[in-house]
Amino acid sequence: MSITDLQFNIDRDSKTPMWLQIRNELFNCLYRDELRPGQLIPNEKTLVDLFNVSIGTVRKAVGALEKEGFLIRKQGLGTFVFQHDKSTFHFAYFHFALNGTDEISYPEVEFISFETKKATKYEAKILNISPGSNVYQIFNKLGINKKNYIVDKIIISQAKFPTLTEEIFKNRANTIYNLYQNKFNIFITNCSEKLKATSADKTVSALLNVKLDSPILRIERIGQTYHNETIELRTSFVHTDDIDYVNTQNSTFGDTF
Amino acid sequence: MSITDLQFNIDRDSKTPMWLQIRNELFNCLYRDELRPGQLIPNEKTLVDLFNVSIGTVRKAVGALEKEGFLIRKQGLGTFVFQHDKSTFHFAYFHFALNGTDEISYPEVEFISFETKKATKYEAKILNISPGSNVYQIFNKLGINKKNYIVDKIIISQAKFPTLTEEIFKNRANTIYNLYQNKFNIFITNCSEKLKATSADKTVSALLNVKLDSPILRIERIGQTYHNETIELRTSFVHTDDIDYVNTQNSTFGDTF
DNA sequence: TATATTATATCATATATATGAATTTCTACT
DNA sequence: AGTAGAAATTCATATATATGATATAATATA
To answer: Which pLDDT tens digit goes with each residue over B132-175?
Structure first.
């Protein structure tokens, strides 16, 4: 079933503009997986025929999804569905820069452990699963320039990744989100992070080679899909003596929609 | 001298698109102060005549500046230059939410102190002034629901705010950025923040009523103008037991330009 | 005077169309 | 086989125009 076989209903008398209706229809195709990450979407002329509108209206709809980050337009080539990748990961999700610099460098990732355990009450609440159901708990160390600064604890529901094993996780050739996307058909579209200052407990101090009770930046990131289904709870413990968490607002402010 | 009297040169043969040239000309008007915060800019028809292009091209240029946050379009009313205000401040610059919630509430600000001192080497470097030149150092306490969580230290160059006094600062009716904007003609357009975990020193522990060496989130924010001239160095010390620093990426990612 | 109606100004949506730029694919030539 | 050039595909820019939606201002009416 190709997208070009689908029937779309654009209500010309609706109070919601046609371009927005088209944007929503295309968005639905994305999360219903009728358009998959990396895939080429139909060209503008085809979309014009499909939706029976003018090309300007199609361009406005596609432009909105491009601005939101779901589509990537390439002149002379076509429009593609965004996919997680080493190149795209970078700016979107990694917020650390070495002291004194503003450059965000790509982190080195080192696997620590992979285990199955029962979800805590809090984890279950966040992941919207029953307390006590199985989750994978994965630890990684992240570093820059051969020095480790970050311990990552990932919690994901086993039910959503039934075939995941330590081997598959360790042997992935790309980013973790790319693994979710390509092997499990789960596409993380938005993240929100909550930051706190804490101090190093025994585990963290050992892994990061810092003193017990050293100041540690604790980041809790929630990764969600198109319809805000929470997939991943990732807690980072960061030793910030040599690196900063960087957050830049480029313009005065910006409502997405 | 009104903007409508100015002469604009749009090169129709340039490789940079006309809409971008117009966007840049309008942006220049903004930072040259020919269009001031809150001001109504010429309507689309006038801009069409001014730049001698079609209305679609004008709309694309204005749309870009709107997306960047510099202009605010209001249907039926006109297009205005963004201004700092209590209502706009909110989402753009205050990143804290009470534990368990995602709502970012408006903080209560309490003045602590205002003094003139010599810039440290680091402050001078950030503010691009000579070490030892005069700066104002201003302390504030910020709270949510009558409880104080944040101490803010503001450093600004005296040379850029020659007439600023403690009285003027304390008696402002609006936000601090609004004061810069309206009384000193200095408009902060972009901020970048660097976060670290530290621990409470004597001053901070006293002001926030926490134990010495408690974990403290330290945020260094640099506020800049249109051309990235650094105006303000603001360091926040945050007691994060009850509040989180929240950072949300709404879509996969987003290049502004 | 207070309120409802009408007119006006301004941005928003939508169509139709033409030309340009970037990329890939095809084709002909050496 | 390899390369250069032409053709085709696709998105980007730009113009012209018509109609709609929204907010304010002006006017008429009770």
So the answer is: 999 999 999 999 988 999 999 999 999 999 999 999 999 999 99
Burial A221-234 (b: 16+ CB within 10 A, else e): bbbbbbeeebbbbb
Token pair in block for residue A107: 């982190």
- Chain A CB contacts of B192 below 8 Å: 102, 246-249
Q: Hey, how many other C-beta atoms are within 10 angstroms of the C-beta on A86?
A: 11
What are the Cα distances from residue B126, in Å, to B156, B158, B222?
10, 14, 8
Question: A218 pairs with which residues across the strands?
Answer: A196, A237
* Chain A residues with CB-CB distance to B193 below 8 A: 246-248
Which residue of chain A has the CA closest to B198?
Answer: A215
Structure tokens at B118: 């010599």
Q: Which residue in A82, A88, A242, A251 has the most chain B C-beta atoms within 10 A of its own C-beta, making it the best mutation to test that interface?
A: A251
Burial letters for B167-179: b for 16+ Cβ neighbours within 10 Å, e otherwise? Answer: eebeeeeebbbbb
Cβ atoms < 10 Å from Cβ of A63: 15
CA A42 to chain centroid: 25
Q: Which residues contact B204 (CB under 8 A, 6 or more apart)?
A: B151, B210, B216, B237
Residue showing tokens 């491009």: A66
Q: How far is CA B185 from CA A101, B20, B30, B153, B222, in A?
A: 30, 27, 12, 22, 18
Q: Is the CB of A56 under 7 A from strand C?
A: yes
> Quick check: helix, strand or coil at residue A90?
helix
CA atoms of A165 and A19, how far apart (whole Å): 43
Distance CA(B182)–CA(B84), nearest Å, equals 9
- Does the model's pTM come out above 0.85? yes
Task: Verify whether the Cβ–Cβ distance A191 to B248 is below 8 Å.
Answer: yes
Task: For residue A256, list chain B residues with Cβ-Cβ distance below 8 A.
Answer: 250-251
Least confident of A85-94, A152-161, B167-176, B180-189: A85-94
Residues with CB under 7 A from strand D: A 15, 41, 43-45, 55-56, 59, 73-79; B 17-20, 53-57, 60, 74-77
- The answer to whether B254 touches B109, Cβ cutoff 8 Å, is no
CA of B45 to C1' of C10 (A): 9
Residues of A at the B interface, defined by Cβ within 8 angstroms: 67-70, 82, 88, 91-93, 95, 97, 102, 189-199, 215-218, 238, 240, 244-254, 256
Is the per-residue pLDDT at B256 higher than 60?
no
* Orientation angle between helical segments B18-31 and B55-68, nearest 10 degrees: 50
Q: Which of B196, B217, B256 is the closest to A196 by Cβ?
A: B217
| pLDDT digit string, tens, across residues B93-145 | 789 999 988 877 788 999 999 999 999 999 999 999 999 999 999 999 999 98
In whole angstroms, D29 C1' to B40 CA is 34
